[in-house]
């Protein structure tokens, strides 16, 4: 069939999952036209990813859809409990409080962000993004396949096919974004690849409806882990994932494809599996879908090649432990969108786009490693309980009964179980890796380290606010004209924000010069004091976390990450700010600046 050139757009996005749809919404917010194409007939047909951490909810806030998200998501308070049970209706072996809901963690989560995390399966999350992007004017087309791409000078020429009509057409775009998932054709077209093992474990998700409120309403949570004794595979009878309290769930279980064919499993067999995990053989169950997936541990060494940039599962693939996949995909898109917009508007050179891979690839690699590590650490629970894969049911029940032994054996088993549950905090309360990641190089002006690095365990579990370049600007509760705000709210659209304080009025003139030279928006916010147009810091929270003097400045990028800072206002500091913008927007080489 002949191919004709039909379309020319600034950006072509392949894939309408979390990464592609976030890219689309962000680009429309920045006024950039584009086309999104997606192989499937619609958004996600199974729940898949569901944990939406604080950073992602912040990004939704920045994109103007936090309220729409809250209206459809399950709140953090309903995510509280992790359960380990023989069956849902049977014996509860252990419980922990997760996702920042415990008394010892909730203060850290609350103080760190203006938003709460939530649970929202992709079957709900993607339609939300799709509607918002289309409301913003995005052109999104389903049942369109990407076939190939060729980079020619300042253009990428992509060949596509409409699956409904079999008609082929080409799209000329300045940039091509590959958000087309774990089987990414765009990644291959760019000459890129992922590294690491694939198919480590085969798993199935059985999506079903059942009224399980009688078993969960008094202990609400997202995950119920099975520890039924007997010769069973990892996950045993399966992990129950609550997507809609308390009526919609997924049962996830591992299986050997040499012994079981998912396609041949009957509805009756799937229902029996669900009943076994629940421990109630008569509760009505409606099977909605069954799908297979694999445990991979893969990441691309580079996320971009020329005018082709890839994001989301196209470049990082890992198990769902820690709930990082969807969140890293959204963050990939938010990092890339503002850079694309500035380049397409002529405010930055294309070299700015090189910083996308520089910044996001190490975060993706760390996320993959954390997810795999958490998967392996999950086995410590069964080990602590004295359970083994080939153990008889009788021996397994005897091992569980040791938990109730008043003697030293019981004390040792209970202590081992508590230690294993504490270890699971690296999966279920890993606030640092969710919110505290730092770009070490990229669109920022680095500093020579003057303080010892935070121990790795501490950096995974806990978020420590800092204004070090490369980190997300810390949240502090502030007020303008009596209206409560977060410091994260001081950045608007494609603008940069310069945060200063008492004695920092001189930055206003410096910002005007920056705007005149570079043609970008730069807003100066005087936080604290009582000067006209200043922003109140009524609780002194910004003063506590800014890490610069009152007249110093913190430069915040459109994605709310910090690009540069200085301790105090001075002519040399003003020159440093100008050099920082020169570095960010033209990628000229400058020396490392430090306080």
Overall pLDDT score: 95
Q: How much helix, percentage-wise, in residues?
A: 25-40%
Count of individual helical segments: 19
Ranges where pLDDT stays below 50 over 5 or more residues in a row are: 589-595
Class derived from helix and strand content = alpha+beta
DSSP, total strands: 27
Termini separation comes to 63 Å
Could you explain the architecture of this structure?
The protein is of the alpha+beta class and 595 residues long. The strands form 6 sheets. Strands 1, 2, 8, 9, 10, 11, 19 and 20 form an 8-stranded mixed sheet that branches. It has a 7-stranded mixed sheet with strand order 6-5-14-15-16-13-17. Strand 15 and strand 16 form a beta hairpin. Helix 1 runs parallel beside helix 5 (122-135), helix 11 packs antiparallel against helix 13 (408-423) and helix 17 runs parallel beside helix 19. The longest helix is centred in the middle third of the chain and has 24 residues, at 354-377.
Features:
595 residues, seven-stranded mixed sheet, alpha+beta
Summarize the structure.
By secondary structure, this protein is α+β, with helices and mostly antiparallel strands. Helices cover 33% and strands 24% of the residues.
């Amino acid at each position: 069939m002949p191919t004709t050139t039909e379309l020319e757009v600034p950006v072509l996005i392949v894939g309408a999952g979390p990464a592609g749809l976030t890219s689309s919404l962000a680009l429309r917010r920045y006024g950039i036209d584009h086309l999104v194409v997606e192989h499937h007939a619609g958004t996600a047909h199974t729940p898949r990813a569901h944990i939406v951490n604080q950073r992602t909810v912040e990004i939704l806030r920045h994109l103007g859809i936090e309220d729409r998200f809250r209206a459809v998501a399950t709140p953090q308070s309903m995510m509280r409990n992790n359960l380990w049970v023989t069956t849902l209706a049977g014996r509860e072996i252990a419980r922990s409080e997760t996702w920042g809901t415990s008394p010892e963690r909730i203060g850290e989560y609350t103080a760190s962000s203006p938003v709460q995390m939530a649970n929202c399966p992709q079957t709900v999350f993607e339609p939300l993004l799709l509607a918002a992007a289309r409301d913003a004017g995005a052109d999104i087309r389903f049942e369109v396949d990407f076939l190939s791409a060729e980079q020619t000078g300042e253009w990428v020429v992509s060949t596509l096919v409409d699956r409904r009509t079999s008609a082929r057409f080409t799209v000329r775009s300045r940039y091509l974004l590959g958000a087309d998932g774990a089987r990414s054709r765009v990644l291959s077209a760019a000459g890129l690849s992922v590294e690491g093992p694939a198919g480590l474990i085969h798993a199935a998700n059985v999506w079903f409806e059942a009224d399980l409120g009688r078993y969960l309403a008094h202990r609400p949570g997202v995950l119920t882990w099975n520890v039924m004794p007997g010769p069973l595979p990892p996950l045993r009878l399966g992990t129950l994932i609550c997507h809609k309290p308390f009526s919609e769930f997924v049962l996830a279980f591992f299986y050997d494809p040499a012994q079981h064919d998912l396609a041949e499993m009957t509805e009756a067999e799937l229902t029996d599996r669900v009943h076994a995990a629940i421990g109630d053989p008569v509760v009505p169950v409606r099977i909605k879908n069954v799908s297979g997936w694999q445990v991979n541990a893969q990441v691309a060494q580079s996320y971009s090649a020329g005018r082709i940039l890839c994001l989301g599962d196209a470049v990082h693939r890992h198990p769902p432990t820690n709930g990082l996949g969807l969140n890293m995909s959204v963050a990939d898109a938010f990092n890339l969108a503002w850079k694309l917009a500035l380049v397409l508007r002529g405010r930055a050179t294309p070299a700015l786009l090189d910083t996308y891979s520089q910044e996001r690839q190490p975060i993706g690699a760390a996320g993959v490693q954390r997810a795999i590590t958490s998967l392996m650490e999950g086995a410590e629970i069964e080990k602590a309980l004295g359970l083994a894969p080939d153990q008889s049911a009788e021996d397994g029940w005897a091992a569980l009964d040791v938990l109730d032994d008043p003697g030293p054996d019981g004390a040792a088993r209970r202590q081992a179980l508590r230690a294993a549950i504490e270890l699971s905090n690296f999966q279920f309360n890993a606030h640092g890796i969710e919110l505290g990641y730092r770009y070490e190089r990229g669109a920022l002006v680095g500093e020579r380290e003057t303080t010892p690095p935070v121990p790795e365990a501490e950096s995974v579990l806990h978020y420590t606010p800092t204004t070090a370049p490369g980190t997300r600007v810390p949240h502090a509760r502030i007020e303008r004209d009596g209206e409560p705000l977060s410091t994260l709210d001081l950045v608007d659209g494609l603008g940069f924000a310069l945060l200063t304080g008492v004695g920092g009025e001189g930055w206003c003139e410096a910002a005007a010069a920056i705007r005149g030279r570079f043609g970008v928006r730069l807003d100066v916010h005087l936080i604290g004091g009582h000067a006209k147009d200043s922003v109140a810091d009524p609780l002194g929270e910004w003063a506590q976390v800014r890490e610069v003097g009152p007249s110093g400045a913190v430069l915040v990028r459109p994605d709310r990450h910090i690009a540069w800072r200085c301790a105090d206002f001075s002519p040399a500091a003003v020159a440093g700010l100008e050099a920082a913008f020169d570095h960010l927007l033209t990628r000229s080489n400058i020396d490392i600046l430090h306080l």
